[in-house]
Amino acid sequence: MNSGDNALGTALSLIASLDADLVAIVGLSLRVSLTAVALGALVGLPLGAAVALYRFPGRTYVAALLSALMGLPPVVLGLIVYLALSRAGRLGVFGLLFTPSAMIIAQCLLVIPIIASLSRQVVEDLWADYEEPLRSLGAGPGRALPTLLWDGRFSLMTAVLAGFGRASAEVGAVMIVGGNIDQVTRVMTTAIALETSKGNLELALGLGIVLLILSLGVNVLAFAGGAAARRVL
């Protein structure tokens, strides 16, 4: 049996035995990513819906900006958040740098454009189908917004899951603002990078397997949400 097989076997043993270090890293990763995505959804869903429903000067440019920000390099965003949270920054007084809160902020800012842009398209399509009957009932864009968000909930769930997939796999921004501090800000992606460089392939593989399972799970849920949306339609 070669060293790769040994590392894989040990990695599976770490997962099966619920190794304390592995569980702590996975737990922090989920707490940070789920919190960031929840906050991002609270902002991104109504923002995307508002851009889809309201007509205002520069609306096309706002929609284009949201789409462009989906591809924002995470390290650039991490640098911006770092500068804002550092002692010389506007938010330095709160002392958030190198804490889970800083990582949540970075991930939240990363997923908001994704959720907003995808939800804008979903709501825009629904509005095109239901605008006439909704207006006949006296529902303008403001009153129609929550109705369309609810009606498109399955498709919008896919947008939120896409945000979670981006957040959970992110390494650059959280490394910059979190510092990868053991037992404090070390999440799965940063731990994999560190443990691999140290030659601790067992823990790195264990975390990689867990991250892969989460990624596959998110994709399955997204596929199921899309299928449910098509059945509703």
Describe the structure.
By secondary structure, this protein is mostly helical. It has one domain (3-232): MetI-like (MetI-like fold), CATH 1.10.3720.10. The protein is built from ten helices and no strands. The N and C termini lie far apart (53 Å). The model has no long low-confidence stretch (mean pLDDT 89).
Shape: globular
Number of domains: 1
**Proportion in helices:** over 70%
How would a crystallographer describe the biggest sheet?
A: none
Layout of helices and strands:
Layout: H1 3-16, H2 20-53, H3 59-69, H4 74-85, H5 100-136, H6 141-151, H7 153-168, H8 172-178, H9 188-198, H10 201-232
Keywords:
233 residues, mainly alpha, single chain, 79% helix, MetI-like fold
Give a nutshell description of this structure.
With 233 residues, this protein is mainly alpha-helical. Helix content is 79%, strand content 0%. The protein contains ten helices and no strands.
